[in-house]
Amino acid sequence: MSSLCTVLLAYVLRTARAAAEAPVWTGAADPDIARVIDAVLDAPGDEWPMQRLAAVGRMSRATFLRRFRREAGTTPGHFLARVRIIAGADLLTSADLSVSEVAAMVGYRSESSFSRAFRGEIGQSPDGSAARPPPRPPRHRTKPEGRPARSDRAC
């Protein structure tokens, strides 16, 4: 399973757990790493320096980095960035907020840095395009009968 799928699944399950108030898998068998994942999912917009993440997991930075990578299949920084983008996409589709407001809410210091990260992860700009369905492929135009194609016309 790709790292993005893992993050998305953890986010969905975390949201479902909050709605159902029942324990649900968070994406990690290690309870210390699961605690870190839960904390990040609860507050993706918070400041999350490596030392704080390690402290939430109750371990040293080196041990945290090794165990997180083993459990989540990605680095803590990459996980945090993906969680923030997913949370941002959710806010863009569910709330009437500007890209700038969403960027601040999910932990980005500028709209442009959020937009670059969003475009890199999602493949499109966050400026409202996330709230709309993907564009339809262009229709193929058929040329009218009896009329030559442009390349066949005389100059």
Explain this structure.
With 155 residues, the chain is mainly α. The chain has one domain (3-131): Homeodomain-like (Arc Repressor Mutant, subunit A), CATH 1.10.10. 56% of the residues lie in helices and 0% in strands. It has helices spanning 3-20, 31-42, 50-56, 61-72, 76-94, 99-105, 111-122. Helix 1 crosses helix 5 and helix 6 crosses helix 7. The protein is elongated. The chain starts with a helix and ends in a 33-residue tail after the last helix. Residues 19-25 and 130-136 have low confidence and may be disordered. It comes from Pseudolysinimonas kribbensis. Keywords: DNA-binding, Signal, Transcription, Transcription regulation. Pfam families: HTH_18. This is HTH araC/xylS-type domain-containing protein.
In short:
By secondary structure, the protein is mostly helical. It has one domain (3-131): Arc Repressor Mutant, subunit A (Orthogonal Bundle), CATH 1.10.10.
CATH class (first level) name: Mainly Alpha
* Uncertain spans: 19-25, 130-136
Q: Radius of gyration in whole Å, from Cα?
A: 22 Å
Which structural class matches the secondary elements? mainly alpha
